[in-house]
């Protein structure tokens, strides 16, 4: 799940999906939130992360 709000991170977490926060100055408090697996500032950054085999949440 890719999003920019706590609702997006909650939805992804609840679905068991890896969560990627599109970080900005408004949502800095979510950068280290328990529901956030990864933070990117631009969507094109995610392409390289995915090519590298990003797994996301293993088990919490």
How large is the count of helical segments? 2
C-alpha geometry? globular
How much is the radius of gyration in Å?
11 Å
pLDDT average, as an integer?
92
Report strand %.
5-15%
Strand order of the largest sheet: 1-2-3
Kindly report how far apart the N and C termini lie: 17 Å
Count of β-strands: 3
Tell me the count of domains. 1
Assembly status: single chain
Taking pLDDT < 50 over at least 5 consecutive residues as the criterion, the unreliable ranges are: none
Order of secondary-structure elements: EHEEH
> Level of helix content?
25-40%
Q: Structural class, from secondary structure content?
A: alpha/beta
State the major sheet: 3 strands, parallel
What does this structure look like?
The protein is α/β, with parallel strands linked by helices and 60 residues long. The chain has one domain (2-51). Helix content is 32%, strand content 13%. The protein is built from two helices and three strands; from the N terminus they run βαββα. It has helices at 6-15, 43-51; strands at residues 2-3, 20-22, 38-40. It has a three-stranded parallel β-sheet, sandwiched between helices. Helix 1 links the parallel strand 1 and strand 2 (20-22). The two termini are 17 Å apart. The relative contact order is 0.22.
């Amino acid at each position: 799940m890719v999003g920019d709000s706590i609702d997006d991170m909650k939805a992804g977490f609840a679905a068991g999906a890896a969560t990627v926060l599109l970080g900005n100055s408004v949502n800095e408090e979510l950068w280290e939130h328990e529901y956030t697996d990864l933070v990117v500032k631009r969507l094109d950054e995610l392409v390289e992360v995915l090519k590298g085999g990003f797994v996301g949440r293993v088990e919490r």
